[in-house]
């Protein structure tokens, strides 16, 4: 199990937000937990210092390309990037220094998997450079993949069959539990167990982590098969649940 760091960008700033409040229809309803005074590159340099590879930069909407490019330039090959990635621009972001590109909405159309787009993307960037973001929300007993900044439900359920299908076309999965993202009220335990049981490739879980006990819980429930990202709970993002140094120590002890 690894600690995978993050840089979430909104309107050109490093922020931590409550994922479920992202909405094109109600931008005033966005709940922001933290807005950084440091530039995006400051975080990349920190992660580079501690050799925390595989973290992700997520562009939440327009106006974030410059900040994303600055973060990648601070650690070429050290971080992944997502947000608005397509078959047409994915290769460009790899050339700018991303180790992988992260994609969700581009490979879905009207709630379904767009196989043509997915295969076009694989051809463009290469399976080995592709992370599929299968972020999801719960309905009943199932977790449905959501797109467009977690606003729209697809008809695709997280299942062994779905994960096997997608694993043949990418290098890793990134899965935000969107219902609890940014709330620091605890993880989506059932999702962690399902991902650990079903995912055949490296998978990073994000959402709801409040303190080190949640990291230990992910390690236990996930049988050390999952990686984890922490956002709002970290002191470097204004949180009080855990320090960045604690996260780094956890990472080193589990490597």
Care to describe what's here?
- The protein has 255 residues and is of the alpha/beta class.
- It has a single domain (6-254), classed as TIM Barrel (Alpha-Beta Barrel), CATH 3.20.20.
- The protein has eight helices and 15 strands.
- The protein has helices spanning 40-49, 65-74, 90-95, 115-125, 160-167, 189-198, 212-221, 244-254; strands spanning 6-10, 13-17, 32-35, 55-59, 79-82, 101-103, 108-109, 112-113, 130-133, 136-139, 142-147, 152-157, 172-176, 203-206, 226-229.
- The strands form three sheets. Strands 3-2-1-4-5-6-9-13-14-15 form a ten-stranded mixed sheet.
- Strand 5 (79-82), helix 3 and strand 6 (101-103) form a beta-alpha-beta unit.
- Helix 1 runs parallel beside helix 2 (65-74).
- It starts with 5 loop residues before the first strand and ends with a helix.
- The mean pLDDT is 93.
The CATH homology group name: Aldolase class I
Q: What would the CATH topology be?
A: TIM Barrel
Sheet with the most strands?
10 strands, mixed
- Which regions contain 5 or more consecutive residues with pLDDT less than 50? none
Number of helices: 8
- Counting helices, strands and paired strands, the structural category is alpha/beta
Number of domains: 1
What would CATH call the class?
Alpha Beta
Strand content: 15-25%
What descriptive keywords fit this protein?
globular; 255 residues; ten-stranded mixed sheet; alpha/beta; three-stranded antiparallel sheet; TIM Barrel
């Amino acid at each position: 199990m690894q600690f995978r760091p993050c840089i979430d960008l909104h309107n050109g700033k490093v922020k931590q937000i409550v994922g479920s409040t992202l909405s094109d229809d109600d931008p005033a309803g966005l709940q922001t937990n933290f807005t950084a005074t440091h530039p995006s590159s400051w975080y990349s340099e920190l992660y580079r210092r501690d050799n925390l590879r595989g973290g992700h930069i997520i562009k939440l909407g327009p106006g974030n390309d410059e900040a994303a490019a600055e973060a990648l330039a601070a650690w070429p090959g050290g971080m992944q990037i997502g947000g608005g990635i397509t078959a047409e621009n994915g290769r460009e972001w790899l050339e700018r220094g991303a180790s992988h590109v992260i994609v969700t909405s581009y490979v879905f159309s009207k709630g379904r998997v767009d196989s043509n787009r997915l295969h076009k993307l694989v051809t463009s960037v290469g399976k080995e450079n592709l992370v599929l973001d299968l972020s999801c929300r719960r309905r009943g007993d199932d977790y449905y993949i959501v797109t467009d900044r977690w606003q729209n439900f697809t008809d695709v359920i997280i299942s062994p069959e779905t994960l096997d299908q997608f694993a043949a076309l990418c290098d890793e999965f990134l899965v935000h539990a969107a219902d609890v993202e940014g709330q620091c009220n605890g993880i989506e335990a059932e999702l962690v167990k399902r991902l650990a049981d079903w995912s055949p490739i490296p998978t990073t879980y994000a959402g709801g982590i409040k303190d080190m006990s949640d990291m230990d819980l992910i390690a236990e429930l996930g049988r050390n098969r999952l990686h984890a990202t922490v956002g709002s709970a970290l002191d470097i993002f204004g949180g009080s649940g855990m320090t960045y140094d604690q996260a780094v120590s956890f990472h080193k002890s589990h490597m």
